[in-house]
Design a protein that fits this description.
The chain is an alpha+beta fold. The chain has two domains: 180 residues, Immunoglobulins (Immunoglobulin-like, Sandwich), CATH 2.60.40; 114 residues, no CATH class. Helix content is 31%, strand content 31%. A five-stranded antiparallel sheet has the order 1-11-10-5-7. A four-stranded antiparallel sheet has the order 2-4-8-6. Strand 16, helix 6 and strand 17 form a beta-alpha-beta unit. The longest helix is centred in the first third of the chain and has 27 residues. It starts with a helix and ends in a 6-residue tail after the last helix.
Length: 354
């Protein structure tokens, strides 16, 4: 009778619970890392000194409990054998601390960005670990994130089994940044569980390197005739760097010196440049409104403009320029150098300056 009631209740509960749909399953943007508990953080703080921290593993806690049990048994029984075993166990704990400290002290870490870094896109990070010691090798070295704050970005850990004395080893990791602009690399630490894996000794890595994070680029296709009703070779009336002579204009920061009209400059006493009339679809302007870094609408506009710029510059016959709040900030040009200049400006646009 009880089995029948239990079966009915289970069936009723399963019937009431809605099935999980595919839309409810989401992929996290960052690798799932088990956050440390409050007691673990407190213990790390108590065991931290001069950039060092010590973490006791599950095997380490078990070994400590066994050692305490052996020690109490040796005191109560007076057995010499138990005293010897207890002494060996204490010696293993001391040796573990000494050897792990030697490893993290002799490990010198350098990190280097390879290529460009975009928001929420994993970029390549080279990590070089050098053994500054001249005799003993480094064993079981790991370089990992030190902070749990994802706003600073994440870096996947790397592990090296052996590094001979006075030599270097290079490993590649993946770096993911979540904010555009100038930012420091996520805090890292070099750690080791050598020799017994009972304790993990960590040392903070002193790294002041800064990286410029570009906006995220979305793949898009921009038709060549988008937003331009003029025909190829037809005068548009817009000013550009090449084409038919249009007139003279005052020289502004960011303009090329070769565009200065020297006879007119000498005649009126201030620098002026030649302006030309654009022909057909050879030039595009992108307009960015005012905003502050961190504003969702402004960040979406930055991402959209960056994606449009990259898509337009794929066409070799289109020059792309940028205006910020109707002010010329990047003159129109073509090629990869122009793309780099546009992305650099968009990466720092809206940043507050102290």
């Amino acid at each position: 009778m009880r089995d029948t009631e239990t079966t009915r209740s289970v069936a009723l509960r399963d019937k009431q619970a809605p099935p999980a749909t595919s839309s409810e399953v989401t992929t996290p943007d960052f690798p799932i890392v088990r956050p440390p508990t409050r007691y673990t953080l407190l213990l790390r703080r108590l065991l931290s000194y001069r950039g060092r921290s010590l973490e006791v593993t599950t095997a380490g806690w078990l070994f400590i409990l066994i050692s305490l049990a052996v020690g109490f048994a040796a005191i109560n029984s007076g057995s010499n054998l138990l005293h010897v075993v207890f002494g060996c166990q204490m010696g293993m704990i001391v040796a573990s601390g000494v050897l792990s400290e030697m490893i993290v002290r002799r490990a010198k870490v350098r990190r280097k960005i390879v290529g460009s870094t975009h928001v929420d896109v994993a970029s390549l990070l080279e990590i070089e670990v050098e053994n500054t010691g001249k005799r003993a090798p480094l064993m079981s070295v790991t370089v990992e994130d030190q902070a749990t704050n994802k706003d600073l970005g994440t870096c996947s850990p790397i592990s090296l089994l052996v590094i001979p004395s006075a030599q270097k080893r290079v490993a590649r990791s993946r770096l993911t940044m979540v904010r555009r602009g100038w930012s420091s690399l996520p805090p890292a630490a070099v750690s080791t569980g050598f020799p017994f894996g009972m304790f993990i000794k960590r040392r903070e890595v002193a790294d002041s390197q800064r990286v410029l994070v570009y906006p995220r680029i979305r793949a898009m296709h921009v038709p060549i005739d988008e937003g331009d009703n003029s025909c190829d070779g037809e005068s548009t009336g817009a000013q550009t760097r090449t084409g038919e002579f249009f007139g003279l204009d005052e020289f502004r920061d960011g303009m090329e010196l070769r565009r200065i009209h020297w006879p007119a400059t000498a005649r009126i006493g201030r620098p002026v440049v030649r302006e030309f009339e654009s022909q057909g679809k050879s030039e595009r302007w992108l307009d960015l409104s005012n905003g502050v870094t961190g504003d969702p609408d402004f960040e979406a506009e930055i991402e959209s403009i960056a994606s449009h710029a990259v898509a337009l510059l794929r066409h070799n016959d289109i020059a792309v320029g940028l205006r910020h709040a109707t002010k010329l900030v990047v003159p129109p040009a073509r090629g990869s150098a122009q793309q780099q200049q546009l992305l650099e400006y968009l990466a720092t646009a809206g940043a507050t300056r102290s």
